[in-house]
Amino acid sequence: MNLSLNEMSDEEIRGQFALPEDIAYFNCAYLSPMLKSAIEAGDVSGNVRARPWRITEENFYAEIELARRLFAQLIGTPQDNIALIPAASYGLAIACRNTRLTPQRCRIILVENEHPSNYLQWREKVRSEGGELTVVPLSALRDSSEALCDAIDDRTAVVSLSPCHWIDGTLIDLKAVAVAARAAGAGLVVDGTQSIGVLPFDFDDIRPDYLIVAGYKWLLGPYSVGFLAAPPERHHGTPLEFSKYNCGTEPAPYRWSSGRLAYPEGGRRGARRYDVGENANFCLMPMVNCGLAWVNATKSDLSERLGGITDTLVGILAEHDILPLAAGNHAPHLLGFQADGRRQRLIDAFRNHKICISVYGDIVRFSPHVYNTKSDLDALAAAVHGALGATGDS
């Protein structure tokens, strides 16, 4: 399947999503709306689970292997490098478990105001095993990633970060960080939850030790399904759990032998050894695959189409001297603004106009997607100008 967004109208794109006409949804970084095709797939798959007498061993593996293949295609890596996980925190916990801290390699480098799923894993690790967290100020990265690269030294065990910051969209030069980490002998863990599905990512070029992505945002999937990618040198680590889904060499890892259950030895092939148990979710996995197929089919012009929407959004707020915190270095799909004393007026106006955004402290975050239409942007302009005056703050 190949979909050219540039050949489709706003209405044709929006019509593929389950969005009411009167909702201007600029909040995909919070929770994506669902594709109509995914909802239909979920209705069908729900009926599969309702008839357990029809469920065969193949049902436990067909959809999850398709998901593995589609996600591998998205990031440009072999299917054997992909594991299925239930949450970003689960994948980050795997990265933590397989990171060794020593007196000589004791530093974990993070970015300021990192997402809790990332920060909390590493904080608990240094508390329990000894070590130190080094937090690079976000303000130092809004022009370039030089401060982050400079923080990496021969005492660094791992750098754990996102390609764009989840609150204000500050872009990180991931290639430069990867080069600096490798030169220092440090590991690299990437939380791609807020970037994979929009920003291009070449896994084999960046070569992180672990890439972790929750699927319910830019992969357009349901809640509680995500992915971990690990290169072959990381295929022999320790998983968080042991189950029939990640042990042994056969699809079904236990067999009867001489009247006894023969349990498997070792983990399954490749990154499958990190798979979460019960990942054959009959209801959710077909929905996951609808989202992945759509993202793969539209990825060639997704960023460009989104960039035009974001430019218009920025222009509306700029009329009132409200500029992105990462002006000139923000992602095309995620950006944060500080409105100072005008914040509450804007929030109230957005609520009244049915405009969905997120608020973190004094930062208002917008995260549009290609389903946002001119009507959405017109509603945003009306809300902003109505709250702040036609030509500036009144």
CATH topology of the largest domain: Aspartate Aminotransferase, domain 2
Could you tell me the number of beta strands? 14
Q: Using the coordinates above, name the CATH class of the largest domain.
A: Alpha Beta
- Which CATH architecture of the largest domain? 3-Layer(aba) Sandwich
Q: What strand line-up does the widest sheet have?
A: 2-8-7-6-5-3-4
Overall number of structural domains: 2
Oligomer: single chain
Characteristic terms for this protein:
394 residues; alpha/beta; Aspartate Aminotransferase, domain 1; 7-stranded mixed sheet; 3-stranded antiparallel sheet; 12 helices
Structure characterization notes:
By secondary structure, the protein is α/β, with parallel strands linked by helices. The chain has helices spanning 10-14, 36-49, 62-75, 88-97, 116-129, 146-151, 174-184, 203-206, 285-298, 302-318, 343-352, 374-388; strands at 24-25, 82-85, 107-111, 132-136, 156-161, 187-191, 210-214, 226-229, 255-257, 260-262, 335-338, 355-356, 358-360, 363-366. The protein has a 7-stranded mixed beta sheet, with helices on both faces. Helix 5 (116-129) links the parallel strand 3 and strand 4. It starts with 9 loop residues before the first helix and ends in a 6-residue tail after the last helix.
Task: Provide a short characterization of the protein structure.
This protein has two domains: 5-34 and 300-388, Aspartate Aminotransferase, domain 1; 56-281, Aspartate Aminotransferase, domain 2, CATH 3.40.640. α8 (203-206) links the parallel β6 (187-191) and β7.
Please specify the SSE layout and strand pairing.
Layout: H1 10-14, E1 24-25, H2 36-49, H3 62-75, E2 82-85, H4 88-97, E3 107-111, H5 116-129, E4 132-136, H6 146-151, E5 156-161, H7 174-184, E6 187-191, H8 203-206, E7 210-214, E8 226-229, E9 255-257, E10 260-262, H9 285-298, H10 302-318, E11 335-338, H11 343-352, E12 355-356, E13 358-360, E14 363-366, H12 374-388
Parallel strand pairs: 1-12, 3-4, 3-5, 5-6, 6-7
Antiparallel strand pairs: 2-8, 7-8, 9-10, 11-14, 13-14
Helix pairs in contact: 2-9, 3-9, 4-5, 10-12, 11-12
